[in-house]
Amino acid sequence: MFSTHELQNALKDWAEVFMARSMHEWVRYVRGTGLSMPQFSTLMRLYYRGQCGLSEITAELDVTAAAASQMVDRLVRDGYLARAEDPNDRRAKQITLTDHGRQLVADGIAVRNRWTESLAEHLDPAERAAVGQALRHLTEATRQLNEMRKNER
Amino acid sequence: MFSTHELQNALKDWAEVFMARSMHEWVRYVRGTGLSMPQFSTLMRLYYRGQCGLSEITAELDVTAAAASQMVDRLVRDGYLARAEDPNDRRAKQITLTDHGRQLVADGIAVRNRWTESLAEHLDPAERAAVGQALRHLTEATRQLNEMRKNER
DNA sequence: GTGAATATTTAAGCGCGATGAAATTTATCA
DNA sequence: TGATAAATTTCATCGCGCTTAAATATTCAC
Fold first, then answer.
1. Chain B contact for A153 (CB, 8 A cutoff)
2. In angstroms, rounded to a whole number, what is the distance separating the alpha carbons of residues A59 and A61?
3. pTM summary value
4. Cα angle vertex A19, ends A15, B55, to 5°?
């Protein structure tokens, strides 16, 4: 009754509607902070995965080291990031989030969560358990795929 | 057994992992096209909701009319959009996607679909029916919330 | 029909993202 | 040790997005 093909369609539709909404909201929030998308992406990377060298940011954004360095410059200037010397390799710098930068990301996540909360409340109570279970499976499957992809590279 | 709170958490976790993956992929695709985010967003708006006047684009991006006009200029120059006079109001212009522009968006959607397909295949077959049903509910609920929000404004 | 409102465009100017080229400092290794 | 490689920065330059201010064309209201 629910073929693989139908599941793919259901996922495709969900991804479309979810992306349209969450992306739009995210772009607006980021614009409101006064930061650019790559700047905010960098803050998020540091928030979720901790401090790193400039070279990781360069790779993440897929730009030249010069571009990344200048972008970090502005973020340091505006108080979102700090540079520190890497004790193991004095050529490299460790880029870290300041409290200010961490707060900005946390606020963005809070905005996103407000939306998902209203979505949860809007679901028919009879469906909540099934939907919750399904999301757990999807989240787990996505994590596994991300791991697989990481190992490929 | 699955409280509202647990559902909210499941949704929150899903949003986090989904956004991290799809956002990253989307940003990379858009960068690869040589277009900026607002440019590509505009192409997508036209793809999904059809032609519109410049004023709609202005509202969508939340910028001045001047900014939108100039952005459309570049998209017309590069062959993604066309301007036509609005027959009902000769002050206004109808902005439409060219075949070239439509193809670009279609390719981006195809990239996203490849990911959701691999995700569907990676799910335990025993869970597929339940997940499919749940996604249908979620998609419907999200569409309803979007409608409600549209009416509020 | 005349004046106000609307839709869009043009122009000047700023900051950011990005690049290539060159410089600096520190690590590696033969 | 001494050449080479690596991590980052600085500089000049360009295009884009955005704004404000001003211009143009058209519609609407009285």
1. no
2. 6
3. 0.90
4. 135
Of A10, A41, A122, the CB nearest to B135: A10
Half-sphere CA count of B113, side-chain side, radius 13 A: 13
Cβ neighbours, 10 Å, residue B124: 10
Contact B70, B54 (CB under 8 A): no
Average of per-residue pLDDT across B2-9: 85
Q: Which of residues 32-91 of A touch B (CB under 8 A)?
A: 37, 41, 48, 62
Q: Closest approach of chain A CAs to the CA of B47, in angstroms? A: 13
**Closest Cβ opposite residue A10 in set B20, B122, B136:** B136
Check: CB of residue B51 under 8 Å from CB of residue B96.
Answer: yes
| Band of pLDDT at residue B1, cut at 50, 70 and 90 | low
Closest by Cα among A40, A48, A47 to A102: A47
What is the rounded CA–CA span in Å between residue B86 and residue B66?
19
Name the nearest CA neighbour of B112 among A127, A82, A69, A14. A14
pLDDT score at B105:
96
Write down how long chain B is: 153
Class of domain B4-122: mainly alpha
* In chain B, domain spans: 4-122
The structure tokens listed for B49 are 């909701």
Pairing of strands B52-53, B93-97: antiparallel
